[in-house]
């Protein structure tokens, strides 16, 4: 698909390039923030699976530069952009004209010195103002001390108290594996990545902190919601308007971290994945009815429910729990599943930040070395 055709089919892709975002995902975070005020009273933030860096750009601009991206800023620019496009579609263009007269610039409350943001990915992230970037694997236990050291160079687990070891107000994760197209496998791998993000968040979040992560909604996702409810006062499942309705993608938004008494998070012994899996399954079988014992084909495995008993007796009985669903983003925003007509003089822009080390890079090199797609020697036999 050419750039221009993608511009037509994906308004957020085009808008991201217009507004200088490295990826269209920026709008997902902005729309989530619009609904949940994620950045309120936040000074220590961790962005997991952050490359190419559009979520980090949002953090940098809102928390460090002090720009305000409430409904005013990005949507006004969107309205202006849309009005521009609608010049060639006379039918309902007039309706948008009022919005365009609103101020077009983000409100700037001034730069902040007290904010620290660490962004982590397997891929290198090109530098961003005020962001500390780490190239690391979020599933690896060594990543937690690395991250805490980046937030506080004096970090020392031997001498620091528990409170100082949990300094983070907000952990966000947009983690996604390379999608294979095999639906069940993709959902399974995604759930493993989600548990890695959750385990890491449990290690660094301070009480009262927030956790936001991408999920693929599959069967038994209500088990995951119930597990999150053990740790957070409020758990929502949110679908920003910039996330395609046709996609199983959604975001869990967990507010007010309240670790159960005696709980000790660890990436050596993570919850939901790895070595504790059979043990947890056995415990789960004891703790639930035959109905709830149904095998979980999403890779979502219950934690030690009895050890992590929530204080609310109602919650103790229910292993499954349905999180409130919140559609976020203003209804006037672009529909991510719709195609929009472009003006005849539309110029398609290049992406703001091409991938630094995409997984397909090696394949392209091999293909080039082989004389193109129809080279004489098959790559596999090289
Ligand atoms: N939020 C990003 C943005 O706004 O630009 C986009 C994130 S992209 C959808 C998913 C990222 O997850 C990829 O860059 C990938 O390298 C990263 N990822 C996947 N597995 C990871 C892992 N185990 N550790 C760290 N990053 C990982």
From TrEMBL:
EC number: 2.1.1.205
Enzyme class of the recorded protein, top EC level: transferase
Domain Ribosomal RNA methyltransferase FtsJ per the UniProt entry, residue ranges: 21-257
Pfam families: FtsJ
Residues annotated for S-adenosyl-L-methionine binding in this entry: 53, 55, 121, 137, 174
tRNA processing as UniProt keyword: yes
Cellular component, GO, one term: cytoplasm
Superkingdom classification of source: Eukaryota
MF annotations from Gene Ontology: tRNA (guanosine(34)-2'-O)-methyltransferase activity
Catalyzed reactions per annotation: cytidine(32)/guanosine(34) in tRNA + 2 S-adenosyl-L-methionine = 2'-O-methylcytidine(32)/2'-O-methylguanosine(34) in tRNA + 2 S-adenosyl-L-homocysteine + 2 H(+)
Entry function: Methylates the 2'-O-ribose of nucleotides at positions 32 and 34 of the tRNA anticodon loop of substrate tRNAs.
Similarity section: Belongs to the class I-like SAM-binding methyltransferase superfamily. RNA methyltransferase RlmE family. TRM7 subfamily.
Protein name as annotated: Putative tRNA (cytidine(32)/guanosine(34)-2'-O)-methyltransferase
Native organism: Podospora fimiseda
């Amino acid at each position: 698909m050419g750039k221009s055709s993608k511009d037509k089919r994906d308004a957020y892709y085009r808008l991201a390039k217009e507004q200088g975002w490295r990826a269209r995902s920026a709008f997902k975070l902005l729309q989530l923030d619009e609904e949940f005020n994620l950045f309120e009273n936040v000074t220590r933030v961790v962005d997991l699976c952050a490359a190419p860096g559009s979520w980090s750009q949002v953090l940098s601009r809102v928390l460090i530069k002090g720009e305000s991206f409430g409904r005013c800023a990005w949507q006004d620019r969107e309205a202006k952009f849309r009005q521009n496009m609608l010049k060639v579609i006379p039918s309902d263009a007039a309706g948008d004209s009022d919005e365009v007269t609103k101020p077009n610039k983000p409100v700037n409350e001034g730069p902040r010195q007290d904010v620290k943001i660490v962004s982590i990915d397997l891929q290198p992230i090109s530098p961003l103002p005020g962001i500390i970037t780490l190239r690391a694997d979020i599933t690896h236990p060594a990543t937690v001390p690395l991250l805490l050291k980046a937030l506080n160079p004096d970090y020392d687990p031997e001498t620091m108290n528990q409170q100082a070891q949990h300094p983070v107000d907000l952990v966000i994760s947009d983690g996604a594996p390379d999608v294979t197209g095999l639906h069940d496998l993709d959902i399974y791998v995604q759930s493993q990545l989600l548990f890695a993000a959750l385990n890491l968040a449990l290690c660094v979040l301070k009480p009262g902190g927030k956790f936001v992560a991408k999920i693929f909604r599959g069967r038994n996702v209500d088990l995951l919601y119930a597990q999150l409810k053990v740790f957070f006062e409020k758990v929502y499942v949110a679908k920003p308007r910039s996330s395609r309705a046709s996609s199983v993608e959604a975001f869990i938004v967990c507010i007010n971290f309240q670790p159960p008494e005696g709980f000790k998070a660890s990436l050596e012994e993570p919850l939901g994945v790895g070595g504790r899996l059979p043990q947890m399954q056995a415990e789960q079988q004891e703790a639930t009815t035959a109905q709830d014992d149904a095998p979980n084909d999403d890779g979502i495995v219950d934690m030690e429910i009895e050890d992590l008993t929530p204080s609310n007796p109602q919650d103790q009985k229910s292993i499954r729990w349905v999180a409130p669903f919140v559609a976020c983003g203003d209804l006037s925003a672009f529909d991510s599943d719709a195609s929009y007509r472009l003006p005849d003089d539309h110029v398609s822009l290049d992406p703001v930040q091409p991938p630094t080390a995409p997984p397909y890079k090696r394949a392209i090199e091999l293909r080039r070395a082989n004389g193109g797609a129809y080279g004489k020697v098959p790559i596999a036999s090289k």
